[in-house]
Amino acid sequence: VVARFAANGNPLGRAVLTGGELEPARRWYVERNRRDSTGRRVYPLYYFADLKVDGDRLWLLVAGGPSDPALVVRVGSSGAAERWFRILGLSGVWRLALRPERRELLLSSAEGAALYRVRVPEADW
Questions:
Q1: According to the 3-state scheme, what is the secondary structure of 6-66?
Q2: Which of 33, 67, 85, 116 is the most exposed, having the fewest neighbouring CB atoms within 10 Å of its CB?
């Protein structure tokens, strides 16, 4: 559940994300904790790696493993998940920036020190 609130605390909307889209985040969480055989570190479960606000829309970068395609969810002002962007061939990204004037998503990878630019068609923005 993604709940949005105004600065004064009033609820703005709520989105219930269902289906298998969040499964890569859960799978990566289990795998990272399983690989640490010392048991000294526990990795938290993050479903979302980053989020950005653009007007009345919320953009969420879904957390996933290093081989899972990047996935961005756009949540509208009503609280409903309006659009899912699965970016094939791009994985291991953990930061999101928006360039609305160019309809671009900027995604970065800490491990590869890389910045990726993805242009979104006007009809999908």
A1: CCCCCEEEEECCCCHHHHHHHHHHHHHHHHCCCCCCCCCCCCEEEEEEECCEEEEEECCCC
A2: 67
Alpha carbons 72 and 110: distance in angstroms, whole number: 18
Which residue is it, tokens 């990726």?
Answer: 116
Q: Is 93 exposed, middle or buried (0-12, 13-18, 19+ CB in 10 A)?
A: buried
Contact 105, 115 (CB under 8 A): no
Distance, in Å, from the CA atom of 112 to the CA atom of 89, rounded to the nearest integer, reads: 14
Residue 44: band (very low, low, confident or very high) from pLDDT cuts 50, 70, 90? confident
Q: In the predicted model, what is the mean pLDDT of the chain?
A: 88
CA atoms of 84 and 74, how far apart (whole Å):
6
Tell me which residue of 84, 60, 66, 65 sits closest to 27, measured CA to CA. Answer: 65
